[in-house]
Design a protein that fits this description.
This protein has about 550 residues and is of the alpha/beta class. Among the domains are: about 90 residues, Gyrase A, domain 2 (2-Layer Sandwich), CATH 3.30.1360; about 140 residues, Orthogonal Bundle (Isoleucyl-tRNA Synthetase, Domain 1); about 60 residues, no CATH class. About 50% of the residues lie in helices and about 15% in strands. The protein is built from 20 helices and 15 strands. The longest helix has 25 residues. It starts with a helix and ends in an 8-residue tail after the last helix. The structure holds one RNA strand of 77 nucleotides.
RNA sequence: GCGCCAAUAGCUCAGUUGGAUAGAGCAACGGAUUUCUAAUCCGUAGGUCGCAGGUUCGAGUCCUGCUUGGCGCGCCA
């Protein structure tokens, strides 16, 4: 419907351009659903946006355009020119419910678009060091990354999800040391704080205990490197479990150590050196990031000979590009924003447009309990783990709350609200929409009533304004998906669902579906079923369940 | 000092990429239940879109400056 109308406007514009009234080759006309009823079913501001380049008053253009469009080949009941030059379109009712048929035909595929045209995108997210449990902040990045990947997939991109595991370097050695020291303490019956810089958390004791059970008392200092990997693997398995409980899955885990094993980091450094993008100074190797707009150059190899994270990160991103991805999306915590210029520099040094990489910074999360901020300090061990949160409020609510807000503004996560099994909780408001439609079918089954054979003429019976509004909103989904993918804002779909529920529930309350008039019943049932299908599709993209009963 | 993000109703936030009279939920107040599930619905009230300029037919949205809050600015990871 919307596409048809857009096409009609475009061809009318083409005719006007041929007559020299407006410049040709204009952009896609914007069609929107007006906020106010009197402004029609769809409206466009093309006349306003063309006024300047055409050098004509907007109303004159609008009038000429309206004349060309006429009744839009039978699609429109009328066209009005309003305000400064808006064109308001009033649709003939017959076509309004075409979308229901389309949803029936496309089923789970409705809402998918091909805006991405199969472009290959790698979304890298979480990538937390395997040195401890995930906390709540990681959870937001995890859910955002997972949902964004789904959104992009729905928008026609070929998406892969990846977790980069930092399993080489000092912090992993520290991890192994921490496990080893706790292990010794366990054997010797002591319990005292570990030296500065090591991991103090209780979970280390658990791993030490497991180590003793598995290997007995004979592990020595020399085994620390191996214990490091052993512990990291155990922690990674836990992280994987925590993410799985939230419904977050990855297509691959990329281990940093494989870059070193394959000599990829050294090759990368040699390459930078050969192209004079890296230089020695004060015994260290520096990356000329200032050449690409960074404030200062950055160290790749410390004077002690250790390679920095940056060195490995460059090799890692080189590997991503080598694997043929057209776009790279990295999802980081907002506290890493200072790292962006050097990674952009790296992409440019690798011979790509820096825009190939986009970094999404996920802002901080505060937990709210009884209206109070829960203090979170990783250092003091006072952070709330992601697993605790998921267990407490459930996966659906956790995901929904992380997806309700724009990722780039700080989030207050109200734990009490998320837990509440009541109308205050927005998760249920949306899921209930799905369950309610299911309950219609349950009632029909109970009464031994079958759905009447569908006939498209029945749609003429849908005369309530709410019915037209809902159908029209359902038709918006493909656009919403496309916009969400383009702007990389998964929360648009959450908002869409909440808005749909805000139309559906009042309608459901006010009008009955199972009425005696079979033709009306059939039409309403199909509309409601379309609502259910759309709800299910969007919940699916967001990684939430669509319950049949609640 | 420099940089990044934010600022919209009492609270938590949307706002279709610059459009028409700024919208939801919660909280408050008043109402609806013989119903396909009330985890629902209807109504009332609530606003100088942080402040000041600018851009134009038109700004919550774009630009500049300020204010406030959060986060960064290592041969840490």
């Amino acid at each position: 419907m919307k596409e048809k109308l857009t096409g009609i406007i475009k061809s009318a514009l083409g005719e006007l351009a041929a007559e020299g009234l407006v410049p040709g080759g204009g952009a896609e006309p914007q069609l929107s659903i007006p906020k106010h009823e009197g402004h029609g079913d769809y409206a466009t501001n093309v006349a306003l946006s063309l006024a300047k380049s055409a050098g004509k008053p907007p109303r004159a253009i609008a009038e000429a355009l309206a004349e060309k469009i006429g009744d839009g080949g039978g699609l429109l009941s009328r066209v009005e020119i309003a305000g400064p030059g808006f064109l308001n379109f009033f649709l003939r009712k017959a076509g309004l419910f075409d979308v229901v048929k389309r949803i029936e035909e496309q089923g789970d595929a409705f809402g998918r678009v091909d805006a991405g045209a199969g472009r290959r995108v790698l979304v890298e997210f979480v990538s937390a060091n395997p040195t401890g449990p995930l906390h709540v902040g990681h959870g937001r990045g995890a859910v955002q990354g997972d949902a964004l990947a789904s959104v992009l997939a729905a928008a026609g991109y070929a998406v892969a999800r990846e977790y980069y595991v930092n399993d080489a370097g000092v912090q992993i050695q520290n991890l192994g040391r921490s496990t080893f020291l706790r292990y010794r303490q366990l054997i010797e019956g002591r319990d005292e704080p570990l030296p500065e810089g090591l991991y103090q958390g209780d979970y280390i004791r658990d791993h030490a205990r497991a180590l003793r059970e598995e290997r007995g008392d004979g592990v020595t200092e020399d085994d620390v490197p191996e214990i490091s990997q052993w512990t990291a693997q155990r922690i990674l398995a836990e992280i994987d479990g925590d993410l799985g409980a939230l419904g977050v899955r990855f297509d691959g885990y990329f281990h940093e150590h494989t870059l070193y094993d394959a000599g990829a980091v050294d090759r990368c450094l040699d390459d930078l050196r050969a192209r004079d993008l890296a230089y020695e100074q004060d015994g260290a190797l520096w990356f000329r990031t200032t050449k690409f707009g960074d404030e200062k150059d950055r160290v790749l190899v410390k004077s002690g000979g250790e390679k920095t994270y940056l060195a490995a990160d460059i090799a890692y991103h080189a590997d991503k590009l080598r694997r043929g991805y057209d776009e790279l999306i990295d999802i980081w915590g907002a506290d890493h924003h200072g790292y962006i210029p050097r990674m952009k520099a790296a992409i440019e040094a690798l011979g790509k447009n820096p825009d190939t990489l986009s970094v999404m910074l996920i802002q901080m999360v505060s937990l709210l309990r009884a209206g109070e901020r829960v203090s979170m300090s990783t250092r003091a061990g006072e952070f709330v783990t992601l697993r605790d949160l998921t267990d407490e409020v459930g996966a659906d609510a956790t995901r929904f709350f992380f997806l309700m807000r724009r990722y780039d503004s700080q989030l207050d996560f109200d734990v009490d609200l998320a837990k509440e099994q009541s109308n205050k909780n927005p998760v249920y408001y949306v899921q209930y929409m799905h369950a309610r439609v299911c309950s219609i079918y349950a009632k029909m089954a109970q009464e031994g009533r079958a759905a009447p054979a569908p006939s498209d003429e029945d749609f003429a019976r849908l005369t309530e304004p709410e019915e037209a509004q809902i159908a029209q909103f359902l038709a918006e989904l493909p656009d919403v998906v496309a916009r969400a993918a383009q702007s990389r804002e998964a929360h648009r779909l959450t908002t869409y669902l909440s808005d749909l529920a805000g139309m559906f529930h009042p309608y459901y309350f006010k009008h009955r579906v199972l009425v005696d008039d079979e033709r009306l019943m059939s039409a309403r049932l199909r509309l409601c079923t379309a609502v259910r299908q759309v709800t299910r599709n969007v919940l699916g993209i967001l990684g939430l369940s669509a319950p049949e009963t609640m």
